[in-house]
Amino acid sequence: IKLLGFLAWLCFSTLGATLGAKVLVVPVDGSHWLSMKLLVKELIVRGHDVVLLEPETTALGKGLVGCRNEIYPVSYTKEELGNVLKQLQENVFIKLPKITDAYVNVQRLIDYTSIHVKGCENLLYNQEVMGRLRLEGFDVVLTDPFLPCGSILAETLSVPVVYFLRGLPCGLDEIGTQCPSPPSYVPRFYSGHSDTMTFPQRDISYKDLVRRGAIWLLRYDFAFLFPKPMMPNMVLIGGINCAKPSPLSAHLEEFVDGSGDDGFIVFTLGSMVDKMPADMTIAFLDAFKKIPQRVVWRHTGILPEDVPENVKIMKWLPQNDLLAHPKAKLFLTHGGSHGIYEGICHGVPMVMMPLFGDQPDNVDYMVARGVAVVIDVFDVTTEKVLEAINKVVNDTSYKEKMVNLMSVHQDHAVKPLDLAVFWTEFVVRHQGADHLRPAAHNLNWIQYHSLDTLCLLAAIVMTIAFLGLKCCCFCGRKCCVRVAKKKKVL
Amino acid sequence: IKLLGFLAWLCFSTLGATLGAKVLVVPVDGSHWLSMKLLVKELIVRGHDVVLLEPETTALGKGLVGCRNEIYPVSYTKEELGNVLKQLQENVFIKLPKITDAYVNVQRLIDYTSIHVKGCENLLYNQEVMGRLRLEGFDVVLTDPFLPCGSILAETLSVPVVYFLRGLPCGLDEIGTQCPSPPSYVPRFYSGHSDTMTFPQRDISYKDLVRRGAIWLLRYDFAFLFPKPMMPNMVLIGGINCAKPSPLSAHLEEFVDGSGDDGFIVFTLGSMVDKMPADMTIAFLDAFKKIPQRVVWRHTGILPEDVPENVKIMKWLPQNDLLAHPKAKLFLTHGGSHGIYEGICHGVPMVMMPLFGDQPDNVDYMVARGVAVVIDVFDVTTEKVLEAINKVVNDTSYKEKMVNLMSVHQDHAVKPLDLAVFWTEFVVRHQGADHLRPAAHNLNWIQYHSLDTLCLLAAIVMTIAFLGLKCCCFCGRKCCVRVAKKKKVL
């Protein structure tokens, strides 16, 4: 045993050393993969044996050198998946009556989750793939619990799981970590979407499943989101995507550098949005004609012929590199969390036009911090765009507050990426993180709120009060009887 | 502004560099100083200008090279302070009836706090010293909020404050950080002592004062204490005192190394306890005669003549160095938090005899983890001591569980000392840590629990229900009348 202790000593005094652990990565497609990819890359660099598990319809593993790919066949086509995704993006620019909007969105989310449920079934019932995965003997599963397949797989393989996420709808992340979250000052994440719970019966079991997460790597940061209670197994890695900027291409560098003291604006609505309505495009272009700044705009829809000279249209733009440029004056964005972190990292104030998902929430936070102004996507006019841009550019408080946010956001004892790697390896070293699991997981609702204790106390107090009252009554009656007797005697 | 941003960039990309900040340290005497001293030393090493403020009756600054001392005169003598401290230590070995015990303890705590209140007044009304402190222009105050003088001083000087502590009585630390703490699974710290609140009227203002702490450096660690909700400005630095062991003196090394495979026991009841009753000393010695282990015992009281050969009595012993020795088999301790962390750091299971303060709580935690056995200080017999020692030595589960605790406790992304330095410097860099302050501080009790919202909702529901009922009644009556009329007509 002494030797055991000594070995443990040796082992843990060389922390951070390569362990060569077996890591199973179960990713979620789309923007969710953007920052998880960074962690996966770093795990590979540090010598871990990483297996990326994905359906044949995606190609997330492409370009990931040193990573093994395990691809499973699914019963839907790439086109079907594409259609479902396209549906989610459609109509973000069109204002529908609230009820129609809710109905349409729920229907689309059902379509989206259904196709993934199908894919997960295809995986779990594929005995060949599952057999291979079982034989691997993984040390840890790294997954985004936004879709439950990774959690189910970890449970099936009995491997500790590390979650990597921005948040879960319906407070599932708070339930999963047993984190208190007083609604009086903790804004409800996705609260506008609580009606999108399409499978309440499945949700209940997912609740129990998601509680088993050993470590929750949260893309959360108090420079962006508001301070709130945390649980010991919640690790904040917000800003993990703020990579060191690469140099711009020569023609882009020439364009933005030529903007002089007025600087330039970075304009993108994210990869999920394809086509902006023509009249909205014109409203923006008309506004851009009237400002001294240059504009780099990621735009993939139809364009009028008279695009002004100070606007450069691109099918894709290096967002992080552009924001890092010293002449970047303003970030015109839809308010996705990745873009927001990049804006904060480089201290660029924002004009925001939220479209869907967590974007309206994100935008609210940034407006509350005084670093952004919002444009309503259903009410875009040249005047409104102009007003928003001029406000943020001319009122220096936006820039100053953004620089303050940047300074606290950048000030880490450990960089988010290193922290994410550390905790993933921690779970490998200790086969989980049981010492961080609160006893609250073992309590039901009544026990958690101490209602059983309170009821017992109330019962005791009431019994004593009742007995006391009875005693008083009894004594009182005795006295009365005696007085009456005395009176009689007299 | 661009320049400002760029400078901020430059500044925060050289994190951890020496800042040369002005740090005012307001320490608390006794064991509280043991670990804070480590942080103060490290701040000096990193080039900060540290001023240690203390009353003339203590000499904490002695031996701290590179630190300026600001000593203020007080209206009590060193002897008076000594007496008050001695009183606190007295009678820990004598069992008094509960009520007498509580009364005596409250009286002693009043004496203890009174003398410190006097000292604090002596400081705050000393215009010369206060004038000098004001002129210094400190960047940060580092203090232990166990006594409120440091907090009051920080408030007076309008300097952000970093707290360094193990915990505060009456849940003051939870109030100060606005940290939720469900009583159903978070054990109440010091709960046995909630009757020691001697100055409730002062406490109320202290509550508000203590909330202003920018960062709370907590000697808390989930290998030792149970996982519970945390707030973003609570930084866990438990185990900060686990220094690298120094080599033992030649004669001590010879003694413990000669213990062979049986190993040796480290026995100390801490620096607060001076004299053990003679019969208790004999009970321990008789037990030690019957075990194969050697014992190194810190003992300052009266000794019988026949101390067995396997026992080495010392007036002071290098606890951390001894526990780090590979032949250390068992730690016989009173359960002070410093000793516990050292035991965990070196993976040595314990036999514990709690005396006062937080020790009974600490011991409960260790027993619950299966790494310690407890002895009742009021019921010490040779048999009980023997039984406890043999249980921990022979049942290998104690050692195994302790090695597990050790492995998670040692596995830090950042070492506790570096973390404490980082956050102290963070407060200097950002003039506080406002972005970590939850909005809960601005809410009253009713708002925090959303009772106002709930009341409004209840009122609306009840109004609707009432109106609905009235409508039904009205319609019902109309119908009845009609039916009655019809009947009449018929």
From TrEMBL, chains A, B:
KW Membrane (keyword) present: yes
Compartments where located: Endoplasmic reticulum membrane; Membrane
Signal sequence coordinates: 1-20
CDD domains, per the entry: GT1_Gtf-like (cd03784)
Transmembrane spans: 456-476
Classification via SUPFAM superfamilies: UDP-Glycosyltransferase/glycogen phosphorylase
A GO cellular component entry from the record: endoplasmic reticulum membrane
Cited InterPro entries: UDP-glycosyltransferase, UDP_glucos_trans, UDP_glycos_trans_CS
EC number: 2.4.1.17
Highest taxon in the source lineage: Eukaryota
Enzyme class, broadest EC rank: transferase
GO MF annotation terms: glucuronosyltransferase activity
Alphabetized UniProt keyword annotations: Endoplasmic reticulum, Glycoprotein, Glycosyltransferase, Membrane, Signal, Transferase, Transmembrane, Transmembrane helix
Membrane topology designation: Single-pass membrane protein
Record's catalysed reaction(s): glucuronate acceptor + UDP-alpha-D-glucuronate = acceptor beta-D-glucuronoside + UDP + H(+)
Keyword Nucleotide-binding: no
Pfam families: UDPGT
UniProt xrefs under PANTHER family: EG:EG0003.4 PROTEIN-RELATED (PTHR48043), UDP GLUCURONOSYLTRANSFERASE FAMILY 1 MEMBER A1 (PTHR48043:SF161)
UniProt similarity note: Belongs to the UDP-glycosyltransferase family.
Record-given protein name: UDP-glucuronosyltransferase
Species name: Gadus morhua
Classification lineage: Eukaryota, Metazoa, Chordata, Craniata, Vertebrata
